Amino acid sequence: MSLLITDECINCDVCEPECPNEAIYMGEEIYEIDKDKCTECVGHYDEPQCVEVCPVDCIPKDPNNEETEDQLMLKYERLMAE
């Protein structure tokens, strides 16, 4: 599943540059994650980098967008081919 940023986000700007897929962007009020680009860093790192650097722990898995490790790897491969 992709990740999502909750309304606890303090807009500290540390997550956006850490995303290897450029899935994080500034929304109307807080940062948001493009579910079509988020691979939870599968293919790049062992752990999601945004979660690792978030000082307020506001980036959980998105329960409305469940994906298996294999699906995340296929998404990674598609993104790298583009």
TrEMBL record:
One of its GO terms (molecular function) is metal ion binding. Residues 1-29, 31-64 form the 4Fe-4S ferredoxin-type domain. One of its GO terms (cellular component) is cytoplasm. Keywords: 4Fe-4S, Electron transport, Iron, Iron-sulfur, Metal-binding, Repeat, Transport. It comes from the Bacteria. Gene3D superfamilies: 3.30.70.20. PROSITE patterns: 4FE4S_FER_1, 4FE4S_FER_2. The keyword 4Fe-4S applies. SUPFAM superfamilies: 4Fe-4S ferredoxins. NCBIfam families: di_4Fe-4S_YfhL. This is 4Fe-4S dicluster protein. It comes from Cocleimonas flava.
